[in-house]
């Protein structure tokens, strides 16, 4: 039995939660972004994502200590049940396999096989190429549960070459005009991809401390990144591209009163009002999610009998049904007998 409860997915046959936002006894965590990764007694994941999660949990605890947010009795450290990509293991009467999602480094999809068929949970994924994470795979299945973040036709991204050119051009023009180019990018995944793109073009890079910490994890996992410096308010002079998390609403201290230009790296750049909404000079559609065409392409490759949707536009259901695809959007507390 499979159910969606409290914004969390639960497989009762395996007593396994999926990307739960509340602490659980045993939970599969698809990747390290905070809207999917929480501390649990046991986390089922890939070895690389285990290192990423451990690093992020450690940093969040350190921040909590600084702001006195920790309870008197903090949760014990979680244990990691690690499985390599495409190395199946048995869990009762079922076989489970993790395989690459192409979202960020170490991100994994989950395949569950049993006598009633094959079920795939994609989590967040993308099919487009990447310099800093494993390329996504697609496995044929009977039931597919997929995210549909960009499940509307207006969200068809430009080619990867066009996106890279836009990033490099923005940085180059800003530097030529004596302005510091600031790229807002999530510290896990998109920031490292931006580093690779800028570094490939020979543009010097400085990164926020959180980006720096995650870059070290990437390098320890064997990802080659270009030379970069950690941001220091005393030494940063605006002559290097700066990669900064979107959560930093204000400009870095070193840029107060100095010329700068900001660009948000996000798939939501396809929205006409994105530049105004984010309060930046430019929005560039570098995304770690599948766009509309890629969502359709994934279904074509997986050939499922049934498609379940979550984390995205509900009207994607109707678009799929018009294509003859049996699709349903999961509602809270819905229970389905899948495998």
Summarize the entry for a quick read.
The chain has 339 residues and is an alpha/beta fold. The chain has seven helices and 20 strands. α4 (209-220) links the parallel β13 (205-207) and β14.
Count the beta strands.
Answer: 20
Write down the domain tally: 2
> What share of the residues lie within helices?
10-25%
Largest sheet: 7 strands, mixed
Rg (C-alpha, Å): 21 Å
Regarding quaternary structure, what we see is single chain
Just name the CATH architecture of the largest domain.
4-Layer Sandwich
CATH superfamily of the largest domain: Ribonuclease Z/Hydroxyacylglutathione hydrolase-like
Low-confidence stretches: 61-68, 70-75
Q: What integer is the average pLDDT?
A: 90
What structural class is derived from the secondary structure elements? Answer: alpha/beta
Written overview of the protein:
The protein has 339 residues and is α/β, with parallel strands linked by helices. The chain has 2 domains: 2-154 and 289-336, Ribonuclease Z/Hydroxyacylglutathione hydrolase-like (Metallo-beta-lactamase, Chain A); 160-284, Rossmann fold, CATH 3.40.50. The protein is built from 7 helices and 20 strands. It has helices spanning 47-66, 160-176, 190-200, 209-220, 274-278, 292-302, 316-322; strands spanning 2-5, 8-11, 16-18, 26-28, 42-45, 79-82, 89-91, 94-100, 108-114, 117-121, 143-148, 180-184, 205-207, 229-230, 241-244, 260-265, 282-284, 306-312, 327-329, 335-336. It has a 7-stranded mixed sheet. Strand 2 and strand 3 form a beta hairpin. The longest helix is centred in the N-terminal third of the chain and has 20 residues, at 47-66. The N and C termini lie close together (7 Å). Mean pLDDT is 90; it is low at 61-68 and 70-75.
């Amino acid at each position: 039995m499979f159910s969606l409860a409290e914004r969390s997915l639960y497989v009762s046959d395996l007593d396994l939660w999926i990307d739960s936002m509340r602490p659980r006894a045993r939970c599969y965590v698809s990747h390290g972004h905070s809207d999917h990764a929480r501390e649990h007694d046991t986390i089922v994941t890939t070895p690389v994502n285990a290192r990423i999660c451990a690093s992020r949990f450690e940093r969040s605890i350190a921040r909590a200590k600084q702001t006195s947010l920790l309870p008197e009795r903090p949760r014990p450290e979680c244990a990691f049940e690690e499985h390599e990509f495409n190395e199946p293991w048995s869990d009762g009467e079922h076989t489970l396999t993790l395989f690459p999602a192409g979202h960020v480094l170490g991100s994994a999809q989950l395949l569950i096989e049993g006598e009633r068929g094959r079920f795939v949970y994609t989590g967040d994924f993308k099919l487009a190429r990447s310099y800093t994470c494993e390329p996504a795979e697609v496995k044929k299945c009977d039931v597919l549960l997929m995210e549909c973040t960009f499940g509307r036709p207006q969200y068809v991204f430009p080619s990867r070459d066009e996106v890279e050119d836009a990033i490099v051009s923005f940085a180059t023009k800003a530097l030529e005009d004596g302005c510091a180019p600031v790229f807002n990018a999530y510290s896990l995944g998109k920031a490292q991809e931006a580093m690779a793109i800028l570094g490939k073009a020979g543009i010097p890079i400085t990164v926020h401390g959180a980006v720096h910490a995650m870059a070290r994890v990437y390098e320890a996992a064997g990802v080659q990144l270009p030379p970069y410096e950690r941001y220091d308010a005393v030494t940063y002079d605006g002559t290097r591209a700066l990669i900064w998390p979107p959560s930093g609403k204000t400009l870095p201290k070193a840029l107060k009163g100095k010329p700068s230009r900001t660009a948000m790296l996000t798939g939501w750049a396809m929205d006409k009002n994105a530049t105004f909404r984010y309060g930046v000079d430019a929005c560039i559609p570098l995304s770690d999610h599948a766009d509309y065409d890629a969502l359709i392409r994934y279904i074509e490759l997986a050939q499922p009998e049934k498609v379940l949707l979550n984390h995205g536009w509900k009207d994607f259901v109707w678009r799929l049904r018009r294509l003859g695809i049996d699709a349903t959007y999961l509602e809270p507390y819905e229970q389905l007998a899948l495998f």
